[in-house]
Inverse folding.
Protein backbone atom coordinates (compact mmCIF):
# COMPACT_ATOMS: atom_id res chain seq x y z
CA UNK A 1 0.00 0.00 0.00
CA UNK A 2 2.89 2.38 0.71
CA UNK A 3 4.18 1.86 -2.82
CA UNK A 4 0.78 2.83 -4.26
CA UNK A 5 0.67 5.94 -2.10
CA UNK A 6 4.17 6.96 -3.17
CA UNK A 7 3.20 6.54 -6.84
CA UNK A 8 0.02 8.57 -6.31
CA UNK A 9 1.84 11.35 -4.45
CA UNK A 10 4.58 11.48 -7.07
CA UNK A 11 2.03 11.62 -9.89
CA UNK A 12 0.09 14.38 -8.14
CA UNK A 13 3.25 16.43 -7.52
CA UNK A 14 4.35 16.01 -11.13
CA UNK A 15 0.90 17.01 -12.41
CA UNK A 16 0.89 20.11 -10.21
CA UNK A 17 4.33 21.09 -11.47
CA UNK A 18 3.33 20.64 -15.12
CA UNK A 19 0.10 22.64 -14.66
CA UNK A 20 1.95 25.48 -12.91
CA UNK A 21 4.58 25.45 -15.66
CA UNK A 22 1.95 25.61 -18.41
CA UNK A 23 0.02 28.33 -16.57
CA UNK A 24 3.16 30.48 -16.24
CA UNK A 25 4.01 30.04 -19.92
CA UNK A 26 0.47 30.91 -21.06
CA UNK A 27 0.18 33.87 -18.69
CA UNK A 28 3.52 35.36 -19.77
CA UNK A 29 2.95 35.11 -23.54
CA UNK A 30 3.80 38.20 -25.58
CA UNK A 31 1.02 40.40 -27.02
CA UNK A 32 2.12 40.63 -30.64
CA UNK A 33 -1.01 42.26 -32.13
CA UNK A 34 -1.08 45.20 -29.66
CA UNK A 35 -4.77 44.55 -28.89
CA UNK A 36 -6.71 43.15 -25.95
CA UNK A 37 -10.13 41.54 -25.97
CA UNK A 38 -12.78 43.69 -24.27
CA UNK A 39 -15.57 42.19 -22.17
CA UNK A 40 -18.84 41.65 -23.96
CA UNK A 41 -21.45 44.42 -23.43
CA UNK A 42 -23.04 44.16 -20.01
CA UNK A 43 -20.09 42.45 -18.29
CA UNK A 44 -18.52 45.74 -17.18
CA UNK A 45 -14.92 46.93 -17.14
CA UNK A 46 -11.92 44.91 -15.96
CA UNK A 47 -8.39 45.66 -14.78
CA UNK A 48 -5.55 44.01 -16.69
CA UNK A 49 -1.99 44.04 -15.29
CA UNK A 50 0.65 43.88 -18.03
CA UNK A 51 4.41 43.93 -18.21
CA UNK A 52 6.09 46.12 -20.82
CA UNK A 53 9.62 46.43 -22.18
CA UNK A 54 10.95 49.20 -24.43
CA UNK A 55 13.47 48.73 -27.19
CA UNK A 56 16.18 50.32 -25.05
CA UNK A 57 15.76 47.62 -22.39
CA UNK A 58 13.75 49.61 -19.84
CA UNK A 59 10.47 48.18 -18.68
CA UNK A 60 8.01 47.83 -15.87
CA UNK A 61 4.44 46.94 -14.99
CA UNK A 62 1.19 48.83 -15.62
CA UNK A 63 -2.49 48.17 -14.79
CA UNK A 64 -4.95 49.19 -17.51
CA UNK A 65 -8.72 49.56 -17.09
CA UNK A 66 -10.33 47.87 -20.09
CA UNK A 67 -13.89 49.11 -20.78
CA UNK A 68 -16.58 46.74 -21.91
CA UNK A 69 -17.27 46.33 -25.63
CA UNK A 70 -20.01 48.00 -27.64
CA UNK A 71 -22.70 46.62 -29.92
CA UNK A 72 -22.46 47.42 -33.61
CA UNK A 73 -24.98 49.88 -35.05
CA UNK A 74 -26.94 47.12 -36.78
CA UNK A 75 -27.15 45.15 -33.53
CA UNK A 76 -28.37 48.23 -31.60
CA UNK A 77 -31.14 48.84 -34.11
CA UNK A 78 -32.14 45.18 -34.04
CA UNK A 79 -32.32 45.15 -30.22
CA UNK A 80 -34.46 48.33 -30.18
CA UNK A 81 -36.83 46.97 -32.81
CA UNK A 82 -37.25 43.65 -30.97
CA UNK A 83 -37.90 45.45 -27.69
CA UNK A 84 -40.60 47.61 -29.30
CA UNK A 85 -42.31 44.53 -30.74
CA UNK A 86 -42.27 42.67 -27.40
CA UNK A 87 -43.18 45.58 -25.14
CA UNK A 88 -46.98 45.28 -25.41
CA UNK A 89 -47.09 41.65 -24.30
CA UNK A 90 -44.82 42.36 -21.32
CA UNK A 91 -46.66 45.37 -19.89
CA UNK A 92 -50.34 44.48 -20.36
CA UNK A 93 -50.33 42.04 -17.42
CA UNK A 94 -53.73 40.48 -16.59
CA UNK A 95 -55.68 42.96 -18.70
CA UNK A 96 -57.53 41.81 -21.84
CA UNK A 97 -57.75 45.09 -23.75
CA UNK A 98 -56.02 48.48 -23.84
CA UNK A 99 -59.47 50.08 -23.75
CA UNK A 100 -60.30 48.50 -20.41
CA UNK A 101 -57.37 48.49 -17.99
CA UNK A 102 -58.57 47.35 -14.56
CA UNK A 103 -55.43 45.53 -13.36
CA UNK A 104 -51.98 46.90 -12.66
CA UNK A 105 -49.65 47.22 -15.64
CA UNK A 106 -46.16 45.74 -15.62
CA UNK A 107 -44.05 48.74 -16.63
CA UNK A 108 -40.73 46.94 -17.04
CA UNK A 109 -37.38 48.75 -17.08
CA UNK A 110 -35.98 46.22 -19.54
CA UNK A 111 -37.12 43.40 -21.78
CA UNK A 112 -35.86 39.87 -20.89
CA UNK A 113 -32.73 38.86 -22.81
CA UNK A 114 -32.30 42.38 -24.15
CA UNK A 115 -29.77 45.13 -23.18
CA UNK A 116 -32.29 47.91 -23.95
CA UNK A 117 -33.14 50.32 -21.10
CA UNK A 118 -36.74 51.56 -20.73
CA UNK A 119 -38.08 54.61 -18.88
CA UNK A 120 -41.82 55.45 -18.54
CA UNK A 121 -43.92 58.62 -18.43
CA UNK A 122 -47.62 58.65 -17.51
CA UNK A 123 -49.86 61.57 -18.44
CA UNK A 124 -51.79 61.04 -15.18
CA UNK A 125 -49.48 59.92 -12.39
CA UNK A 126 -52.34 60.38 -9.90
CA UNK A 127 -54.20 57.62 -11.77
CA UNK A 128 -51.34 55.40 -12.96
CA UNK A 129 -47.88 55.71 -11.40
CA UNK A 130 -44.51 54.97 -13.01
CA UNK A 131 -44.57 51.37 -11.74
CA UNK A 132 -47.92 50.68 -13.42
CA UNK A 133 -50.03 50.62 -10.24
CA UNK A 134 -53.63 51.82 -10.54
CA UNK A 135 -55.04 54.34 -8.09
CA UNK A 136 -58.09 53.48 -6.00
CA UNK A 137 -59.63 56.89 -6.86
CA UNK A 138 -60.44 56.14 -10.50
CA UNK A 139 -64.08 57.01 -11.37
CA UNK A 140 -66.38 54.27 -12.56
CA UNK A 141 -66.66 55.79 -16.05
CA UNK A 142 -62.89 55.39 -16.54
CA UNK A 143 -60.06 57.77 -17.47
CA UNK A 144 -58.13 58.03 -20.73
CA UNK A 145 -54.35 58.13 -20.27
CA UNK A 146 -51.39 58.40 -22.59
CA UNK A 147 -48.48 56.14 -21.72
CA UNK A 148 -45.05 57.03 -23.11
CA UNK A 149 -41.76 55.10 -22.95
CA UNK A 150 -38.23 55.85 -24.08
CA UNK A 151 -36.09 52.90 -25.17
CA UNK A 152 -32.35 53.57 -25.25
CA UNK A 153 -29.17 51.65 -26.02
CA UNK A 154 -25.69 53.13 -26.53
CA UNK A 155 -27.05 56.63 -27.17
CA UNK A 156 -29.66 55.58 -29.74
CA UNK A 157 -33.30 56.00 -28.69
CA UNK A 158 -36.76 54.87 -29.79
CA UNK A 159 -40.13 56.21 -28.64
CA UNK A 160 -43.15 54.13 -27.59
CA UNK A 161 -46.63 55.55 -27.01
CA UNK A 162 -49.87 53.85 -26.04
CA UNK A 163 -53.32 55.37 -25.41
CA UNK A 164 -55.21 53.44 -22.75
CA UNK A 165 -58.36 53.77 -20.71
CA UNK A 166 -58.21 52.78 -17.06
CA UNK A 167 -61.05 51.78 -14.75
CA UNK A 168 -61.28 51.14 -11.01
CA UNK A 169 -59.00 48.21 -10.16
CA UNK A 170 -60.59 44.77 -10.08
CA UNK A 171 -59.49 41.98 -7.78
CA UNK A 172 -57.46 39.35 -9.54
CA UNK A 173 -58.59 36.67 -7.09
CA UNK A 174 -61.18 36.02 -4.39
CA UNK A 175 -58.63 36.86 -1.68
CA UNK A 176 -57.74 40.14 -3.39
CA UNK A 177 -61.44 41.02 -3.71
CA UNK A 178 -61.98 40.27 -0.03
CA UNK A 179 -58.95 42.37 0.89
CA UNK A 180 -60.28 45.33 -1.08
CA UNK A 181 -63.70 44.96 0.54
CA UNK A 182 -62.14 44.97 4.01
CA UNK A 183 -60.04 48.05 3.20
CA UNK A 184 -63.07 49.98 1.93
CA UNK A 185 -65.01 49.06 5.08
CA UNK A 186 -62.29 50.53 7.28
CA UNK A 187 -61.44 53.68 5.29
CA UNK A 188 -63.06 56.13 7.74
CA UNK A 189 -63.01 53.91 10.79
CA UNK A 190 -61.91 55.38 14.14
CA UNK A 191 -60.76 53.63 17.28
CA UNK A 192 -58.79 50.45 17.84
CA UNK A 193 -61.12 47.99 16.13
CA UNK A 194 -60.70 46.70 12.56
CA UNK A 195 -63.96 45.54 10.99
CA UNK A 196 -64.07 42.29 9.04
CA UNK A 197 -66.66 41.87 6.24
CA UNK A 198 -69.52 39.58 7.20
CA UNK A 199 -70.56 38.78 3.63
CA UNK A 200 -69.02 38.74 0.14
CA UNK A 201 -71.21 38.61 -2.97
CA UNK A 202 -74.17 37.59 -0.81
CA UNK A 203 -72.28 34.76 0.89
CA UNK A 204 -71.65 34.70 4.65
CA UNK A 205 -67.99 34.67 5.73
CA UNK A 206 -66.58 32.64 8.64
CA UNK A 207 -63.22 34.03 9.80
CA UNK A 208 -60.56 31.97 11.57
CA UNK A 209 -57.04 32.61 12.78
CA UNK A 210 -54.50 30.78 10.66
CA UNK A 211 -53.03 27.83 12.54
CA UNK A 212 -49.41 28.48 13.38
CA UNK A 213 -46.95 25.85 12.23
CA UNK A 214 -44.40 26.69 14.91
CA UNK A 215 -45.68 24.02 17.31
CA UNK A 216 -45.76 21.30 14.65
CA UNK A 217 -42.35 22.32 13.36
CA UNK A 218 -40.90 22.34 16.87
CA UNK A 219 -42.41 18.93 17.61
CA UNK A 220 -41.06 17.51 14.34
CA UNK A 221 -37.60 18.95 14.94
CA UNK A 222 -37.62 17.65 18.53
CA UNK A 223 -38.55 14.12 17.42
CA UNK A 224 -35.99 14.33 14.63
CA UNK A 225 -33.31 15.44 17.10
CA UNK A 226 -34.19 12.68 19.57
CA UNK A 227 -34.09 10.09 16.78
CA UNK A 228 -30.77 11.41 15.49
CA UNK A 229 -29.30 11.42 19.01
CA UNK A 230 -30.52 7.84 19.61
CA UNK A 231 -29.11 6.62 16.30
CA UNK A 232 -25.83 8.42 16.94
CA UNK A 233 -25.63 6.90 20.42
CA UNK A 234 -26.29 3.42 19.04
CA UNK A 235 -23.67 3.89 16.36
CA UNK A 236 -21.15 5.20 18.87
CA UNK A 237 -21.81 2.25 21.18
CA UNK A 238 -21.45 -0.14 18.25
CA UNK A 239 -18.18 1.51 17.22
CA UNK A 240 -16.85 1.36 20.78
CA UNK A 241 -17.76 -2.33 21.01
CA UNK A 242 -16.08 -3.00 17.66
CA UNK A 243 -12.92 -1.17 18.74
CA UNK A 244 -12.96 -3.12 22.01
CA UNK A 245 -13.16 -6.44 20.16
CA UNK A 246 -10.41 -5.34 17.76
CA UNK A 247 -8.11 -4.40 20.64
CA UNK A 248 -8.83 -7.63 22.48
CA UNK A 249 -8.01 -9.68 19.41
CA UNK A 250 -4.75 -7.77 18.96
CA UNK A 251 -3.89 -8.54 22.62
CA UNK A 252 -4.81 -12.22 22.31
CA UNK A 253 -1.39 -13.49 21.13
CA UNK A 254 0.30 -11.72 24.06
CA UNK A 255 -2.18 -13.24 26.54
CA UNK A 256 -1.60 -16.75 25.18
CA UNK A 257 2.19 -16.22 25.29
CA UNK A 258 2.04 -15.10 28.92
CA UNK A 259 -0.05 -18.11 29.90
CA UNK A 260 2.43 -20.44 28.16
CA UNK A 261 5.38 -18.78 29.88
CA UNK A 262 3.83 -18.85 33.36
CA UNK A 263 2.48 -22.40 33.03
CA UNK A 264 5.93 -23.53 31.87
CA UNK A 265 7.35 -21.93 35.03
CA UNK A 266 5.09 -24.18 37.13
CA UNK A 267 2.33 -21.74 38.07
CA UNK A 268 -1.28 -22.85 38.24
CA UNK A 269 -3.92 -21.35 36.01
CA UNK A 270 -5.26 -19.28 38.92
CA UNK A 271 -1.77 -18.02 39.72
CA UNK A 272 -1.32 -17.16 36.04
CA UNK A 273 -4.39 -14.95 36.16
CA UNK A 274 -3.22 -13.30 39.36
CA UNK A 275 0.30 -12.68 38.04
CA UNK A 276 -0.96 -11.16 34.78
CA UNK A 277 -3.42 -8.97 36.71
CA UNK A 278 -0.67 -7.89 39.15
CA UNK A 279 1.74 -6.90 36.36
CA UNK A 280 -1.02 -4.99 34.55
CA UNK A 281 -2.01 -3.05 37.67
CA UNK A 282 1.64 -2.03 38.25
CA UNK A 283 1.97 -0.76 34.70
CA UNK A 284 -1.34 1.07 35.02
CA UNK A 285 -0.25 2.86 38.20
CA UNK A 286 3.04 3.89 36.62
CA UNK A 287 1.22 5.19 33.54
CA UNK A 288 3.24 2.97 31.21
CA UNK A 289 0.26 1.41 29.41
CA UNK A 290 -3.24 2.52 28.52
CA UNK A 291 -6.39 0.69 29.54
CA UNK A 292 -6.82 -2.67 27.78
CA UNK A 293 -10.21 -4.36 27.96
CA UNK A 294 -8.92 -7.95 28.17
CA UNK A 295 -6.59 -7.16 31.09
CA UNK A 296 -9.46 -5.44 32.87
CA UNK A 297 -11.49 -8.64 32.43
CA UNK A 298 -8.60 -10.67 33.87
CA UNK A 299 -8.55 -8.38 36.93
CA UNK A 300 -12.32 -8.88 37.33
CA UNK A 301 -11.87 -12.67 37.06
CA UNK A 302 -9.29 -12.59 39.88
CA UNK A 303 -11.70 -10.63 42.08
CA UNK A 304 -14.47 -13.12 41.36
CA UNK A 305 -12.29 -16.09 42.38
CA UNK A 306 -11.21 -14.29 45.57
CA UNK A 307 -14.87 -13.58 46.32
CA UNK A 308 -15.64 -17.30 46.36
CA UNK A 309 -16.69 -18.05 42.80
CA UNK A 310 -15.37 -21.37 41.52
CA UNK A 311 -12.51 -21.21 39.02
CA UNK A 312 -14.47 -23.04 36.35
CA UNK A 313 -17.41 -20.59 36.49
CA UNK A 314 -15.01 -17.64 36.70
CA UNK A 315 -13.20 -18.75 33.52
CA UNK A 316 -16.49 -19.34 31.69
CA UNK A 317 -17.69 -15.90 32.79
CA UNK A 318 -14.40 -14.44 31.53
CA UNK A 319 -15.00 -15.92 28.05
CA UNK A 320 -18.58 -14.60 27.92
CA UNK A 321 -17.61 -11.08 28.97
CA UNK A 322 -14.85 -10.91 26.37
CA UNK A 323 -17.48 -11.80 23.73
CA UNK A 324 -14.85 -13.05 21.27
CA UNK A 325 -14.62 -16.56 19.88
CA UNK A 326 -10.88 -16.76 20.63
CA UNK A 327 -11.33 -15.96 24.33
CA UNK A 328 -14.28 -18.32 24.57
CA UNK A 329 -12.00 -21.05 23.22
CA UNK A 330 -9.32 -20.11 25.77
CA UNK A 331 -11.89 -20.19 28.59
CA UNK A 332 -13.05 -23.63 27.45
CA UNK A 333 -9.45 -24.97 27.42
CA UNK A 334 -8.82 -23.62 30.91
CA UNK A 335 -12.09 -25.04 32.24
CA UNK A 336 -11.34 -28.47 30.73
CA UNK A 337 -7.86 -28.48 32.25
CA UNK A 338 -9.46 -28.12 35.69
CA UNK A 339 -11.64 -31.20 35.02
CA UNK A 340 -9.19 -33.41 33.13
CA UNK A 341 -5.91 -32.12 34.51
CA UNK A 342 -3.21 -29.99 32.91
CA UNK A 343 -1.90 -32.82 30.71
CA UNK A 344 -1.85 -31.69 27.10
CA UNK A 345 -2.80 -28.09 27.91
CA UNK A 346 0.63 -26.83 26.85
CA UNK A 347 0.35 -28.34 23.38
CA UNK A 348 -3.13 -26.93 22.92
CA UNK A 349 -1.99 -23.46 24.02
CA UNK A 350 1.03 -23.57 21.71
CA UNK A 351 -1.19 -24.34 18.72
CA UNK A 352 -3.57 -21.63 19.85
CA UNK A 353 -0.66 -19.16 20.14
CA UNK A 354 0.54 -20.01 16.63
CA UNK A 355 -2.95 -19.48 15.22
CA UNK A 356 -3.27 -16.24 17.21
CA UNK A 357 -0.07 -14.77 15.78
CA UNK A 358 -1.16 -15.65 12.26
CA UNK A 359 -4.53 -14.04 12.91
CA UNK A 360 -2.78 -10.91 14.25
CA UNK A 361 -0.75 -10.61 11.04
CA UNK A 362 -3.90 -10.93 8.98
CA UNK A 363 -5.71 -8.31 11.06
CA UNK A 364 -2.73 -5.96 10.84
CA UNK A 365 -2.82 -6.20 7.05
CA UNK A 366 -6.55 -5.50 7.01
CA UNK A 367 -6.13 -2.45 9.29
CA UNK A 368 -3.32 -1.18 7.10
CA UNK A 369 -5.43 -1.56 3.97
CA UNK A 370 -8.34 0.29 5.60
CA UNK A 371 -6.09 3.14 6.69
CA UNK A 372 -4.56 3.37 3.24
CA UNK A 373 -7.99 3.46 1.61
CA UNK A 374 -9.21 6.18 3.98
CA UNK A 375 -6.19 8.31 3.15
CA UNK A 376 -6.45 7.61 -0.57
CA UNK A 377 -9.97 9.01 -1.02
CA UNK A 378 -9.25 12.48 0.51
CA UNK A 379 -6.02 12.67 -1.47
CA UNK A 380 -7.86 11.96 -4.73
CA UNK A 381 -10.53 14.55 -3.88
CA UNK A 382 -7.92 17.18 -3.03
CA UNK A 383 -6.03 16.36 -6.21
CA UNK A 384 -9.19 16.75 -8.31
CA UNK A 385 -10.12 20.08 -6.69
CA UNK A 386 -6.63 21.54 -7.07
CA UNK A 387 -6.44 20.26 -10.65
CA UNK A 388 -9.71 21.99 -11.53
CA UNK A 389 -8.62 25.23 -9.84
CA UNK A 390 -5.41 25.25 -11.86
CA UNK A 391 -6.43 23.78 -15.20
CA UNK A 392 -9.62 25.85 -15.72
CA UNK A 393 -7.90 29.28 -15.37
CA UNK A 394 -5.02 28.02 -17.53
CA UNK A 395 -7.45 26.83 -20.20
CA UNK A 396 -9.41 30.08 -20.12
CA UNK A 397 -6.19 32.11 -20.37
CA UNK A 398 -5.06 29.98 -23.31
CA UNK A 399 -8.42 30.36 -25.07
CA UNK A 400 -8.22 34.14 -24.72
Amino acid sequence: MQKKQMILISSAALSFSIVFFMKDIIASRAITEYTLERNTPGEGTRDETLEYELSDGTGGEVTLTIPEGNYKLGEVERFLEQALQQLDQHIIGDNKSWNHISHNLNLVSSVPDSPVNISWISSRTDILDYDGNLSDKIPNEGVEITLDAELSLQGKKEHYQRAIKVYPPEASSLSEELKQTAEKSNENLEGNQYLLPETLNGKRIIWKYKISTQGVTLLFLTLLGISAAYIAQKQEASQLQERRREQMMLDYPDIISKFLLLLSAGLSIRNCFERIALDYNKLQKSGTVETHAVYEEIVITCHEIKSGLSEQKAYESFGKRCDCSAYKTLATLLSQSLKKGSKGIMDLLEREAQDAFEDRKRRARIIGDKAGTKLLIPMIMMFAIVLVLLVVPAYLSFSL
Notes: Residues 36 and 66 are 8 Å apart (CA to CA). Residues 76-166 form one domain. Strands lie at 46-53, 59-66, 117-122, 143-153, 156-166, 199-200, 203-204. The longest helix spans residues 345-399.
